[in-house]
Write the structure tokens for this entry.
Amino acid sequence: IYMEPASVDLGDVTVTASNIVNKADRKIVFPNQQQLSASTNGINLLNTLQLPRINVNLMDNTVSLTTKESLQLRVNGVKVTEQELMAIQPQDIIRIEYIENPGLRYENAGAVLNYIVRRYETGGAVSFNLLQSPHKAMGNYNFSSKLSYKKSEFGINYMGMLRHFDDMWREKEERFLFEDGRELIKQEIPEPGLSKNDAHQLLLNYNIQPNEDNYVNISVGYARRSYGEDFYSLLKNNWYPDQTIQMKDLNHSKNDRPWIDLYWSRSLKNKQSLVLNAVTTYIRSDNVRTYQEMDSDGPIIDVLSLVKGDKYSFIGEAIYEKEFSKGRLSGGIRHTQASVNNKYSGTLSFANKMKEANTYAYAQYAGKIKKFDYSLGVGVYRSWLKQEGFEEYESYTFRPTISLSYLPTSNFYIRFNGSIENYSPSLADISATDQYIDSLQIQRGNPYLLPYDYYKFSLNSEYKFGKSSLSLWGMYMNFPDAIMEDSFWENGKLIRTNNNQKQLHQLMGSLTFKTRFFRDIFNLSLTGGGNYFVSEGHVYRHTYTNWYFRASLFANYKQWSFLYEQYSAFNTFWGEQMNGGENGQTVLLSYRHKNWVFGAGMFNPFTTTKYQVQNYNRYASSNKTSSIGDASHMFILQLSWNFNFGRKRNEIQKRLNNSDTDAGIMKVNK
């Protein structure tokens, strides 16, 4: 018997594996071709990935954690903004590291998203993204370009945002209890108002890599934002039920922020590395608020607040890392120096000058024992503040952290994190300044606020089965001596300020189910969760519970993709106030043709954009609902173009970036 060789065509063979790998402190996410083809930039790619606790707002091009903790965004280890993620072409993304357990290096971050992208050796890339409503004054615009030549790379990035809405409403009821027992109830009957939010940012970048061990980066940026809210209402009160007066509350602000960023990294012998970064920033702020109550004879109450602020800051940071066969040692130091000069004028006039310095040093070791991963770290935080006319203060905080992970199989893991962290009062909170809110209320800064430590514990686990997974997440935080609301009567006026109160307890949890079905064309993600708060001041105690859900369906077939997302309000509570989120939906259908993507959709097709704020103060409780009609039932058009040329390779990238965006001025809102 003789056997003759023969060729048999088996057709296409596809090997499918999970595109998410669980590690001790992170998820390694490898976007598949469907997800990359359905995306136009690094922001909307996250919508297709449907990562737990990650919230993507396509209207504002922002990314956040549903838990309201801070989220750091990085590219090849570099801290960046959402605008810089908009410049990333999806096909250049190798993987995304979703660091759910950030170490001491990331300070108080709740999580980190680190994009690992390719770098051009020659050639370059150009991209353009536009999201525009044809019937509303709403648009997002982004243009970026990179050009590589030999060992150098030049880049430019522009971001623009336009929001002009003339269908904004504020409905509010306030109850005032005076010291003599009288009660005043004020009710706002809303009339159409205006909202304006324009932003522009330009970033120029140059980097050079003279050899494999050295990398130098220079960035120069400028950002401008102007924001305005004009509320109009008819005002009534129970003391004069037959009288109706006109009220207007106008808030306008402008912020200019240029900065320079210098960076250098070097790889050393024996798996060691050193990173140095220096950033200097100037922030110029102008805020104007006008509050008036008027009858037919003219203004009864007229409050004017003008604030001009200048802030200069410097941030310097150094990081050292050493890898061993069974672990990694890292350490670093970060120093921030700032000088603030604010001038308040109008109904009340003040001027204050402040200087602050914060230094943070840490060391951390991460290792592995069989199926257990662990990390132990310790940090020391120094805070110093000097306000003109007051004594300076200085404080030191000891910040240990521990993390334990158990990964018995590739389909299951459980992780525990514990840490002691620190919060320092903001420059706005400690400003020795009074500003009128209305005829009865004054907002006052408190220069005697003290930093405080808080305790944070979290438990996270995930189980995969087939094409589905279940993720369980929970967190408890305790804030002793938390800086929270403190209100009291003084000379017939209600003073709204902050003080170090007893404590706040916060318990949060969520369960996420994800699955792929029908030849992996459809991807479904369902999340349900709850928040529980106990706020204890020196003279008050409040409890609050919030339940929420989030559902996302993503489908991709050939050149077509479809996204539907719906979510309920994620509310938080602090001091005596509940701050509500929004209920919303997003529908988007897009088609890809070569380097172009055309899309159409709608924001909030079934609901009106609303935000609710409730205050439970015993002297001045309130219930406020703000809504933006123009942001609801909004039809949108999407246009994107991505083009690149040249060959690619992986190289050493900038691994550190710092920025300062806090102007340090007190803002007054009603």
